[in-house]
Write a structure and sequence with these properties.
Distance between the termini: 30 Å
CATH topology of the largest domain: Heat Shock Protein 90
Oligomer: single chain
Strand content: 15-25%
Shape: elongated
CATH superfamily of the largest domain: Histidine kinase-like ATPase, C-terminal domain
CATH class of the largest domain: Alpha Beta
Helix content: 40-55%
Length: about 375
């Protein structure tokens, strides 16, 4: 007997936790002799424990007194390990009750409770345990999705605030540059005022592009060659690479990804820029990727000093920078872009020295 959901369908499902628990409880009560199913889970959004209850067809609901007794968990004298199946004694209830724990969140248990007319067969016990494991997987995916959405929202707010502040400063500098230009008629310094004014306009354009990179709603997805995007970023950094005489290793093979080329290039620009900055003269930067059926694992490593414990914890935090004079937004924006592409980005130290940034990108962007 197999539960009716595959992991692939589970991960792409748009069901919320309550709806999924309802569906699971309905499946359980459709299996005779189970006539009652109760799913207790922790709602990470509301930060409280909730329950879903379902009865088999033609089964009379329990009284409020009985439900209150079940919710009191007086019968739960010992909480067994997750995904194990146990019979529990309920007072004043002749039916047979079982519990299958899922986890333990905020000092309260999560579990599936089923009540049956008679003892469950081995196959039905396995079915309940499989339902608990599937529910646990779904809850983990849902929580991670919620965490990423919260992180994306926070980063969007930060970028919006920073962009507003920078635009105000640029506008003020641009106004002074324009006034200087007007006052320096027939003066050799007028050309310098023009350069300042034009530079301000260029900065404003770049700021707009940067802020667009921080907005998932503005993704312009198209099929792009991964190696060519890398090559473009390397070309952009070539003067610094040549200055340090660095060796850049990049695979000869490639693959296509459904990405926003401008934004993913911004990710590579930021990671490679850090790798170049922290690499010693004559060092090596290695870029590699591993192609799977639905996603690509990309790694960028250097031979620099690596990352401290503090840096590993804070490196993607807004305004935290390892580079003197850095804004602390480059890697924050990079992670935001990867999250918008429904991917993952993390950093670690290599056993042989140096730092490595790894990111996973889906080969096609999935619908949320």
């Amino acid at each position: 007997m197999v539960a009716g959901f595959s992991v692939q369908r589970l991960e792409s499902s748009s069901l919320d936790i309550q709806s999924f628990c309802q569906l699971q409880s309905e499946q359980l009560t459709s299996q005779y002799p189970i006539f009652f199913a109760r799913v207790v889970y922790h709602n990470s959004w509301r930060k409280i424990h909730e329950e879903v209850i379902n009865y088999a067809q033609n089964q009379q609901p329990f009284s409020q007194k009985t439900l209150a007794y079940l919710r009191s968990e007086e019968w739960l004298s010992d909480y067994p390990p997750a995904f194990t199946f146990h019979e529990v004694n309920l007072k004043n209830l002749k039916a047979i009750s079982y519990i299958c724990p899922i986890g333990y969140k905020n000092e309260k248990p999560e579990y599936i409770q089923v009540i049956a007319h008679q003892h469950l067969s081995t196959n039905l016990q396995k079915y309940v345990k499989l339902s608990a494991m599937l529910l646990s997987k779904y809850v983990d995916v849902f929580r991670e999705n919620g965490r990423q959405k919260s992180e994306i929202k926070l980063l969007e707010e930060i970028l919006h605030r920073v962009g507003h502040q920078l635009r105000n400063s640029l506008a003020l500098i641009g106004l002074h540059a324009h006034n200087l230009y007007l006052k320096l008629q027939d003066n050799p310094c007028q050309e310098q005022a023009i350069i300042v004014r034009n530079s301000i306009e260029d900065l404003d354009t770049h700021l707009t592009e940067l802020l667009d990179c921080g907005q998932g709603a503005k993704l312009r997805i198209s099929l792009q060659d991964l190696r060519s995007v890398f090559a473009e970023s390397i070309k952009y950094l070539q003067p610094s690479i040549d200055q340090k005489q660095l060796k850049i290793l990049i695979p000869d093979t490639s693959t296509t990804l459904a990405i926003d080329r401008c934004q993913i290039k911004q990710v590579f620009d930021n990671i490679l820029s850090n790798a170049v900055h922290f690499s010693p003269n004559l060092g090596t930067i290695t870029c590699s990727w591993q192609i799977f059926q639905d996603e690509v694992l990309i790694k960028i490593s250097d031979t620099g000093p690596g990352l401290s414990t503090e840096e590993l914890q804070k490196i993607f935090n807004p305004f935290y920078s390892r580079r003197r004079g850095g804004t602390g937004l480059g890697l924050t924006i990079a992670k935001k872009i990867v999250l918008d592409h429904q991917g993952s980005l993390w950093a670690q130290n290599l056993s042989g020295g140096g730092a490595q940034f790894s990111l996973i990108l889906p080969r096609t962007v999935k619908k949320l």
